[in-house]
Design a protein that fits this description.
The structure is a homodimer of 165-residue chains.
Chain A lengths: L2 H5 L5 H9 L4 H9 L5 H8 L3 H13 L3 E7 L4 E6 L1 H4 L2 H14 L9 E5 L4 E2 L18 E5 L1 H15 L2
Antiparallel strand pairs in A: 1-2, 3-4, 3-5
Chain lengths: 165, 165
C-alpha cells in the first residue's frame, strides 16, 4: 500500500493523486523524465529546483512507485531514474496540462514549447489531446517531439549556466 | 498578463500551469467547483483545508483568472465562486488525473468515487478520457455524474461533522 492510500481518508481519485504529487517541482521532474532526462544533474538544472527539493521529489516519486532507480556509475555512485508503468501512465495528465498551459498561460507572441508530429498520419499533432490533423487520440509512442528554437535555447542556456560555473 | 506569465522565465506550458496551481488544495478546490459547490464553507469542508489555505487558493485562482466571485448575500457579505472559461478549460486535466488516481492509487476493494453516464450513448462512461462504451472523447457537458454510496457517505460525514459542531 502506497502513501497515498495510507494517508488519505477519501475515495476521491483526484485527492489521492494530489497526495502523490505533493506540490511544486513534481510535475517538472516528471516532465524531464518524459523528455528523456534520467540523471539528477540534468533534472535539477532544467527544473530549476534546489538539489534538496529535487532529491525530495525523486524520493517521494520512488516511494509512490512512479519511478525506479538503478546505478549507472559505481565510483562515484550515481543513479538513473526511470518511469515505472505507474509513472508512464501519468502521461495523459501532463498532455492535458500542456494543452491548458499552451492555451491559457501564454501570450500570443510566445511559441509552443514542443511541437509533436503524429507518426500515425505524419502531420503536426497540435497542442490538444487528439491529433489536430487526423483526430485520433494522441499516444506518447506515436509522437515525435521537436523543441521550438526559443525553448531549445532556453534549455541550453540553463544547462550552460551550470556546467560552465 | 497573469502571474504565471510574469514570474516564470520559461516557455514550458507545464511549468506555467504548475505555477498557476501553486501546490496542494488547488486541485481539490477546482474539483469542488466542477462538482457544483460554489460557496466557501462547502469548499472548505469537502477539501479539508484550513480556512486560511482555502482563502489563499481562491485568491490565487481569481488572480490567475480561473474563477470569478460575486456576492450572494449582502449581510453578512458572502461570495459565490464560479469557473471562468479559463477555469472551465481545466476540466480535461482533472479528468486525466481522475483516471490515473482511480487506476493507480486505489485498492481493489475500493469503489470508483464518481460514476459517469455518457449522455451521447446513454451508457456508463468508465474512468478513462474516452467513453468505455462508444469510444467518443468525454466532454463535461455530455456526462451525468453519480457518486458511489461510499463516496457520498464520506462527503456527508464531512459535512455533518462541521455543521453539527
Amino acid at each position: 500500500m502506497s502513501n497515498s492510500q495510507k494517508t488519505l481518508d477519501t475515495l476521491c481519485p483526484v485527492a489521492r493523486a494530489e497526495e502523490v504529487l505533493g506540490g511544486r517541482w513534481t510535475l517538472l521532474v516528471l516532465r524531464e523524465l518524459f523528455m528523456g532526462n534520467h540523471r539528477f544533474d540534468d533534472i535539477q538544472i532544467q527544473t530549476g529546483g534546489t538539489p534538496q527539493m529535487i532529491t525530495g521529489r525523486l524520493k517521494s516519486l520512488e516511494a509512490e512507485g512512479l519511478i525506479s532507480r538503478e546505478p549507472y556509475s559505481q565510483r562515484p555512485l550515481r543513479y538513473e531514474y526511470r518511469l515505472t508503468p505507474k509513472g508512464d501512465a501519468f502521461y495523459p495528465v501532463l498532455l492535458a496540462l500542456r494543452e491548458w498551459g499552451e492555451t491559457w498561460c501564454k501570450s500570443e507572441d510566445e511559441s509552443v514549447a514542443v511541437n509533436f508530429t503524429h507518426t500515425v498520419c505524419g502531420q503536426p499533432a497540435g497542442v490538444g489531446l487528439h491529433c489536430a490533423h487526423c483526430g485520433l487520440p494522441l499516444r506518447r509512442e506515436e509522437m515525435i517531439s521537436k523543441q521550438s528554437a526559443d525553448y531549445a535555447l532556453e534549455r541550453k542556456i540553463r544547462w550552460e549556466a551550470v556546467k560552465k560555473s
